[in-house]
Each structure stands twice: as C-alpha cells, then as structure tokens.
C-alpha cells in the first residue's frame, strides 16, 4: 500500500511538473512574441520618424546644394564676363538714348500746319483742308522699368504718343513723289498711314489725301520746341499759297498740253 501511495504521489508530482513547464513555456512564448512585437514597433517608429525624416532632409539638403552649386556657377560666369557685360550695358544705354533723342517731347497742331507750309514751299501742292485728331498715348514704359534702366535724369514713366493728321490736297503725280520724299526727310518723327488719290479727268491732277501720324515721347525730360512759323502780314487769307499753286498747276498742265514744257527743256539743254 505504501508503495502504491508513493507511485501515485510521483505521478501527481510528474503531472504538476509537466503542467508547470507547459505554463512556463506558454508565458515564455508570449513574452518572446510581445518583445518581438515591441521591437518591431520600435523599428517601425525609428523608420518612420527617424530614417524617413533623415532621408527627406538629406534629399532636401542635396537639392539645396545642387541649387547653390548652380548659383555659384552662374555667379562665377557673371564674374568672368563682367567686363563684357558692362560694355553691353553701355551699348544698350547708348541705343536707348538714341531712340529717346529721335522722338520730340510733344506733337502739336503747329507741327502739322508747318509741315503743310514746308511741303507747299518746295512742291506744287494745293491743300483743301487739314484735319487733325487729339493726341493719344499708344505705349507706356512703367516707372520701375525706367528706374531699372538707370538712365540719367529719367525716373518716371515714358509715354509714346501719336497725333493723326489728314492732308486733303491736289497735286500731280510727279509732285506727289517729291512730297512723300520730303515727309520722310522731315525732322519730325512721322509715319505715313495712308495715301489715297483719284485723278481729276477734267484738269488732269490728282485729288486725295495723305494720312500722317506724328509721334512724340512724353517724360523724356526734353522741352517742346515749337516750329519756326513765319509771320504772315495781317489779313493774309492764303497762308498755303493755294491761289499761286493753283495757277502754277494750271500753267504746268497748259505746258504739257501745248508741248511748251518740252521745248523749253530742249532749249535749256541746248544752251
């Protein structure tokens, strides 16, 4: 009986030992799994908050370094070509000043009238009317661009203006070519917009108009110079010599019809 009791006690102890070992193994597995999960979590946090952040900062630093390197190369190029750039800047300034000098500071009615007087002095042309429009701005150079150009005496906006004038007149084909040539040779800044003429079959002259734009530049600092207008005697009602020109045109037509002009030219050549 005592022997059987010992065997039973041994079995119970063995069973308890196995259960204790099993429980210990279970807790060891759980502990290992927990430690592993904690370790993985820590690694993930290190990857997300440390490695990725470090990688991003590294990329940003590399990008910044590349931009700085490009800026350094650009500055080195500027420094190498500094003298050439200075010469180019002076050439550009000279070109700008040349353009500014070509434009008068203003365009007024007296400029349009005096052009007609000058054309009448050198050509056979009879003006019926001179129609003029108000001056208008066509292009503005803003002050910040003017300041950036660093031109002496200029720090405000520059305004390019134009004034339209229409010269209704009568002339001949030969005189018209001379008139156009004289317009382009004028000291004014002028552009011909349109030329329209028809032939008067009865008198053999051209009747029509020349449309002209007078250009100016406000803000250049130059003073307006009025044209030298000849003083006409009081009571003069024909400042453009219309009657005299009409007589001259009539004589020219008569000479062409009778052939006297050719004979006179032949005599002059013979002399």
The ordered H/E elements are: HHHEEHEHEEHH
Give the beta-strand count: 5
> Which secondary-structure class do the elements indicate?
alpha+beta
Shape: rod-shaped
Strand content: 15-25%
Task: Give your account of this protein's structure.
This protein has helices spanning 2-80, 82-102, 109-122, 143-149, 173-184, 242-258, 260-270; strands at residues 125-132, 136-141, 158-171, 190-200, 205-218. With 271 residues, the protein is α+β, with helices and mostly antiparallel strands. Strands 1, 2, 3, 4 and 5 form a 5-stranded antiparallel sheet that branches. A hairpin with a 4-residue loop joins strand 4 and strand 5 (205-218). It is rod-shaped. The model is unreliable at 260-271 (pLDDT under 50).
Features:
alpha+beta, 7 helices, rod-shaped, single chain
Secondary structure blueprint with pairings:
Elements (H helix, E strand, L loop, with lengths): L1 H79 L1 H21 L6 H14 L2 E8 L3 E6 L1 H7 L8 E14 L1 H12 L5 E11 L4 E14 L23 H17 L1 H11 L1
Antiparallel strand pairs: 1-3, 2-3, 3-5, 4-5
């Amino acid at each position: 009986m005592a022997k059987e009791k010992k065997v039973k006690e041994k079995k119970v102890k063995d069973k308890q030992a196995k259960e204790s070992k099993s429980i210990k193994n279970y807790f060891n597995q759980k502990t290992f799994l927990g430690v592993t999960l904690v370790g993985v979590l820590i690694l993930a946090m290190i990857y997300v908050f440390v490695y990725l952040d470090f990688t991003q900062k590294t990329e940003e630093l590399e990008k910044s370094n590349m931009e700085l390197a490009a800026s350094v190369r650009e500055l080195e190029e500027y420094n190498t070509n500094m003298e050439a750039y200075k010469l180019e800047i002076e050439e550009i300034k000279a070109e700008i000043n040349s353009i500014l000098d070509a434009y008068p500071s203003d365009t007024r009615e007296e400029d349009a009238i005096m052009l007609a007087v000058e054309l009448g002095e050198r050509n056979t042309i009879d003006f019926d009317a001179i129609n003029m429009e108000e001056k208008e701005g066509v292009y503005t150079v803003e002050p910040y661009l003017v300041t950036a150009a660093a031109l002496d005496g200029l720090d405000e906006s520059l305004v390019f203006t134009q004034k339209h004038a229409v010269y209704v007149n009568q002339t001949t084909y030969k005189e018209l070519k001379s008139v156009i040539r004289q317009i382009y040779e004028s000291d004014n800044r002028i552009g011909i917009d349109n030329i329209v003429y028809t032939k008067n079959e009865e008198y053999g002259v051209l009747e029509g108009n020349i449309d002209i734009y007078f250009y100016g530049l406000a803000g250049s600092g130059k003073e307006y110079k009025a044209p030298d207008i000849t003083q006409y005697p009081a009571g003069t009602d024909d400042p453009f010599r219309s009657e005299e020109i009409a007589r001259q045109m009539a004589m020219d037509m008569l000479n062409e019809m009778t052939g006297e002009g050719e004979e006179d030219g032949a005599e002059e050549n013979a002399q």
